[in-house]
Amino acid sequence: MSVNKRPKIKNLQKAIKAWILIVSESRVITDLEKLQSVNTATFKTVQKVHAIVKPVNSREVSEVVKVAFKNSIPIYPVSGGKNWGLGSKVPQRDGVLLDLSLMDKVLDFNESMAYMTVQPGVTFGDGVEYLARKKSSLMLDTIGSTPEASIVGNTAERGHGMALYADRFNYVCGLEVVLPNGEIIETGFENYEDSKLGPLAKWGLGPYIDGLFTQSNLGIITKLTLWLRPQSQHFQSFIFNIDKEKDLTLLFEEWRKMVLEGFNASLRIFNDVRMISFGERMPDVSKPLTEKGLVELRTKHNVGKWIGMGATYPISELHREADKAFIISRVGGLVDNISFYDQKMVDEQYKKGDDATKARLDFLFNKSLLRGNVSKAGIGMLYWRKPKKIEIRDIHQDRCGVLWYCPTVPFTGKDVIKAITISKQISKKRGFELNIGFLFISQRALDITGAICYDRDVPGEDERAMECHNEIMDAMVKLGYSPYRLGIQSMKLMSNKTAGSKKLLKVLKEAIDTKHILAPGHYIN
Fold first, then answer.
1. Which residues of 379-413 are buried (b: 16+ CB within 10 A; e: fewer)?
2. Cα angle value 407/413/418 (rounded, 5°)
3. In what order do the strands lie in the sheet with 95-99?
């Protein structure tokens, strides 16, 4: 069915009148121009948003959902809509957008117990600024994407952090959730009368249900508590290069052994294109980047084929030096040009450094994402194939193309090389550069962030990029490398779940959402 001939949503006008009474006319948007802006992602989409409703508190969310439920109108919640490369604000199917960005309050904060309770509109940038205003000694595990991304939104999709709390969902508790019928529930010890443990303990009493509301359409998270970490006074970052595939394989093997033995450090490994594209455009967008051209870029930016960036968070200077010695002893012979940065060294170099030196020290240490800062530097990557005359403004208006593919691989060198090889072969065949990173967030598996960056103004690129994305994801699944996160372009991969689990999800959906009004097609059909 064509976009123009798709059926209208029944009872929509009736619902809009009811929503206006709940949230006011100014927060129910039906203007076609404004609606078009949320119909746009970083790849081609055909879904249509018919209206936007913007509540400011949980009660309004509940009442809005009750109207949607009564009138059988599909609604799709978004927190910040910065799910770039995975759909942005575009819904899975036609419907009404429930925009939670005005729910932007930090509801609770406790310095001694190290937690923060937030609404969906609180961004990572907001969280960092809040801690700074409080002169807190704590750090928020942030994000590699835009500072405008929502903490709740990222958690609901089980997104990553940057430091030791990178597996973000492990460090949240006490959800407030609006169910598809408008009922409000709380999870963990928040639902236990007179308990003091709501923001302090994860599991609660009885069945643990928090996970049902992540990567699902069973409820709308309107509040959660996020655990924080004390800033390390002896923070130490490090960076290294690797050029040989054999050494890369051995590094992954050795690092797995280190973390299984109990070593605590954050680490991610990027390929050359990923690292270079943060600060530079593709030299000539009219033709493929050659290996010679890539070597020249590596030389210019002083990076290897693979770049490792990480940090340790020691409790003393002696522990810092021990961490440094341990890393060198275990992987020093496998890497090139490993450099460590601590506060004293950085302060000394900063005093006598030129602008380029200071910028590097800020990136690697002073303003490092690994110590709870936020940055817009990663946005530059989305402009990799855009003409240099295009300034960085709005990625959707500038028609930046990006598709993320997100498989998980076993934490072995053999599996890493296999994933790299297949991604590179398919990317090259489709005319794209390999742009990939490995996130070390657990002891036994690695999460891949693979990006296909392109220019949507080039005819045919949307289709070619999607074909590349689909072929890579299909190949990964066949190899047993299942996705850990899906965008609206890849929800079909939920069909690979076993029959029993699909049946259970269907039973849960039909029990909780009898009219299937909440985010139809989002992970659960």
1. bebbbbbbeeeeeeeebbebbbbbbbbbbbbbbbb
2. 55
3. 28-29, 49-53, 95-99, 75-78
Q: Which amino acid is at 171?
A: Y
Residue pair 448/435 in contact (Cβ under 8 Å)? The answer is no
Tell me the one-letter amino acid at 237: S
Q: Tens of pLDDT along 116-165?
A: 999 999 999 999 999 999 999 999 999 999 999 999 999 999 999 999 99
CA distance 97 to 126: 23
Which residues lie closer than 8 Å to 142 by C-beta, 6 or more apart? 124, 127, 128, 161, 162, 163, 369, 372, 373, 374
| Antiparallel, parallel or unpaired: β 49-53 and 95-99 | parallel
| Residue 211 CA: distances (Å) to CA of 169, 175, 217, 444 | 9, 10, 11, 21
Give me the residue label for tokens 């959707």: 396
User: Beta strand 445-455 with 400-405: parallel, antiparallel or unpaired?
Assistant: antiparallel
Q: Which of 187, 222, 193, 179 is nearest to 207 (CA)?
A: 187
d(CA 42, CA 278): 17
> Could you tell me what percentage of the chain is helix, strand and coil, using 3-state DSSP and rounding each to the nearest 5?
40, 20, 40
User: At residue 139, what are phi and psi to the nearest 5 degrees?
Assistant: -125, 145
Phi/psi for 118 (5° steps) reads -130, 155
User: Are 294 and 272 a contacting pair, CB within 8 Å?
Assistant: yes
The CB density around residue 26, as the number of other CB atoms within 10 Å, is 8
Distance CA(5)–CA(7), nearest Å, equals 6
DSSP string, 366-386: IT-GGGT---SGGGGGGGTTS
Angle at 118 between CA 365 and CA 205, to 5 degrees: 110
- Global confidence as pTM: 0.96
Q: Are 283 and 289 in contact (CB under 8 A)?
A: yes
Tens of pLDDT, residue by residue over 93-117, are: 999 999 999 999 999 999 999 999 9
Angle (CA) 259 112 369, round 5°: 45
Report DSSP state, residue 330: H
Look up tokens 């390929």; give the residue. 271
How many other C-beta atoms are found inside a 10 Å radius of the C-beta of residue 155? 23
